[in-house]
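Record 1 of the preview.
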Amino acid sequence: MFSTADFLQYTQWSGIATLVFAALAILAFLFKWGIRFRLVGTTGFMLVLTSGLFALSLVPLSRTVIPGAEKYTLVYDNGSTQTVISINPEISPSALEATLRQAASNLYSYGRLGKQGDNSLTIRARTLVHPEPGVSVPLYLGQIKRNLASREDANMSIEIYTDKFAQLPKPTA
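->
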């Protein structure tokens, strides 16, 4: 995975290429070359590319890794205060807690807007159980609520529904 320092290096090289294309476009207009408008388009594209690389050099792209957390898939996200993740049905309660903490860290964003009076992000973890062939039922195993106001939230509330773990299928050996 690329680091912010890598993107800063790419930004520098892209900026130099942008200046070269801009100089070529100016020369093309002075000497009335046939490709002058293509060079203007290329210069504009390079400006957009350089701006994007610069933005990536400012924002860290790292994900939080919490020991004991398992993989999850984002199923639903309203972009505001509600998300649902899908987890493996063979997860343990301790692994679920670590997975919920990791999801709360990874899904935090400054762009999330809280509802009027509700400034917390709720992440619910669910899995699918199959009580009979051809039937799938979602089973919610836990949830975590975190504050949207700050990146580091020491007061996250985690609820693990231990009674729901009894409904999970037993792993076959």
